[in-house]
Automatic annotation (TrEMBL), chains A, B:
Signal peptide: none annotated. Its EC number is 2.8.3.16. The lineage of its organism: Bacteria, Bacillati, Bacillota, Clostridia, Neomoorellales. Keywords: Transferase. This is Formyl-coenzyme A transferase. It is an enzyme of class 2 (transferase).
Length: 400, 400
């Protein structure tokens, strides 16, 4: 079965998270992703936990790539990169703005070698503007981009999203930019430069918060797990965990009350209509807590489902492994790694009928494909020996 | 200036959030997006706040689209849809699985009319598996997909991400699936079916949480705003808000302590190294709180920047409007709407050098382009009158 991007060659100069997550998706879609690593390797190779010396963090976001060690500080390293660029469709990098110019591999320098090249940069703040040179970490981007100010319990602290949504969102937009440029290249025959900023992407995903502020003049605050105007539409604690229920209208409210054997609540003047329930939440919430404290999550969900009330369990990462839907969709699955053995990771959500995303190979060990790629490029064995002896393509010895 | 997807025609059957966010991005990229609405319109048109009767929520995610009212329950409505499908490149829908089959517009029924058609479905749980028919809301997907279990303060409640990340992530992956299928169609000449599930997408963005659990056997928990292993790397309260600092190593720790005039902390045996700071966080945190309670956020950031400590303000949605970087990148900007007037919304992060994303038109009023589109298709004025009289293309009168 072929991939959507078969035949597309990607030069991957990315490290850590946003860039590698982007090139992983290109790899899942069938592109030939050549991950170029400095002799010391992607920093993420040093992030624990480790399995037989291999980083689980690194392995989980670098599948479907080949690894080539190339010292870009050596002029011969840069020459090899330029040869690769001549044959490539896409280059992705996530250095801090200015770094590629220092290394002599900026878009301006590489574009003349291959006018069809699509060169994507993914950075914290973008390549332009007053903050372009600043260091960016996910939490700084989440903080500046507004999402933390609307996440958390009401009246509590602004809260970081537990996944690195600053990096991941930028990764997804970088993929979109690259694929859009590929589509455009079919018409124009030309590549172009793509400048994705993590901060831009955070602003882009705030959906209605900006318009709401613009119209109502009210700064959106954290509202915890409630819906702003539909009640009850929230998480609730059970005997052994949490569930979510979504009682979207008065008819469902009636069914809900009957299901939990509290018909008295249906016409209770405090809770009879959705606006009343929303207004009197402080009185309703303890009643619901007391009701659900009698059920396990499984029991509560069975009762809700039987009554036709939209609901679901609040699952921790361990529980995902046993969810029948997630298993059916192959969204958590083991990948065999030559050194680390079997490692579980997220599958691909890109379910295309003819050319679905797929996991064709585990993450590479540092430089495992250097020789193969150079041989494909026509280098002789003696040239390889020379490049190795001079440290151009040699991985730094790993500390034990 | 042309767009990356100029010449691509998208039939948009989506409502509310995930689907419309996807087609908005296709529109930002220059595709011709024809939003087909039932006579009563996209439900999101009823979500407040309103400006002169127009929903700010709706307007913020439906720019760059034309609106056509079409009653798909009427056979003539379906015939018109099928004519459009013959000329289209992409169809996107986010009904609950099974609905398109009931309406007679499933992929199986439309594909024979246009084998080049890319048909993307975006649903809560996907088109297959035991939960495929279940109702999905963002909070149910966030709960089941694991992200809530790792978001929140340590020891506190699992917390919903304040933006509808369940919908938005699915929207981004749907765009990626569609663009990948367009790339593949250049080689094969064939369209295909795309089945995106919001739950799949939530699992896909957990990054290292799955691998971490798989390797270490420990269920990841909410850890608030701290970094798990680097300290201090967190939010801190100031006199008038919050800031984030990221003290990534012992050298920065020294600079940090000097900057806040607490050189005594540098070699304090509790805080001398990063592992010690991480271990003794409960003692360090109150000291930092007391230090920063003396500064405003602006003062604190000036001190941190002067010392070279990575930092940033925690901004609420109102503050985004004044951030010089966000303004420079045009990520918050006013769009003129013919009825509502000027409405602020998020810009596009898709900064491509030759064919950048752009906002070419505001969100459409219900059915504003019905006639124009039908005339483009060759319908005569008398045919239009007839279709209107029989309610096939007539918007439902708005309640005042």
């Amino acid at each position: 079965m072929s991939g959507s991007l078969n035949g597309i060659k990607v030069i991957d100069l990315t490290r850590v998270l946003a860039g590698p997550f982007c090139t992983m998706i290109l790899g899942d879609l069938g592109a030939d992703v050549i991950k170029i690593e400095a002799p010391e390797g992607d920093e993420a190779r040093n992030f624990g936990p480790f399995v037989k010396g291999e980083s689980a963090y690194f392995m989980s976001i670098n599948r479907n790539k080949r690894s080539m060690v190339l010292n870009l500080k050596d002029p011969r390293g840069r020459e090899i990169l330029k040869e690769l660029v001549r044959q490539a469709d896409v280059l992705v990098e996530n250095f801090r703005p200015g770094t590629t110019a220092k290394l002599g591999i900026s878009y301006e320098e590489l574009y003349p070698l291959n006018p069809r090249l699509i060169y994507a940069s993914c950075s914290g703040f973008g390549q332009t503007g007053p903050y372009r040179g600043r260091p960016a970490y996910d939490i700084i981007i989440q903080a500046m981009g507004g999402i933390m100010s609307i996440t958390g319990q009401p009246g509590g602290e602004p809260t970081r999203v537990g996944a690195s949504i600053g990096d991941i969102t930028a990764a997804l937009f970088t993929v979109i930019g690259i694929l859009a440029a590929l589509a455009e290249r079919e018409r124009s025959g030309k590549g172009q430069y793509i400048d994705i900023s993590m901060l831009d992407c955070q602003v882009a995903i705030l959906e209605n918060a900006i318009a709401r502020y613009s119209v109502a003049g009210e700064v959106p605050k954290p509202i915890g797990n409630r819906h702003p105007s539909i009640t009850p539409f929230t998480t609730l604690r059970t005997r052994d965990g949490y569930i979510v229920i979504a009682v979207g209208n008065d008819n469902l409210w009636r069914k809900f009350c009957e299901a939990v054997k509290r018909p008295d609540l249906i016409d209770d003047p405090r809770f009879k209509t959705n606006p009343l329930r929303t207004q009197n939440w402080d009185e309703l919430y303890p009643i619901l807590c007391s009701i659900f404290s009698e059920y396990t999550s499984e029991e509560a969900l069975a009762v809700m489902e039987a009554a036709g009330v939209p609901c679901g369990p609040l699952q921790d990462v361990g529980q995902l492994f046993h969810d029948p839907q997630i298993r059916h969709r192959e969204m958590v699955l083991p990948i065999e790694h030559p050194v680390a053995g079997s490692l579980w990771m997220a599958g691909t959500p890109l379910k295309l009928s003819r050319t679905p995303g797929k996991i064709a190979r585990p993450a590479p060990t540092l430089g495992q494909d250097t020789y193969a790629i150079l041989r494909e490029m026509g280098y002789s064995e003696s040239q390889l020996k020379e490049l190795e002896a001079e440290g151009v393509i040699t991985p730094k010895a790993k500390k034990e």
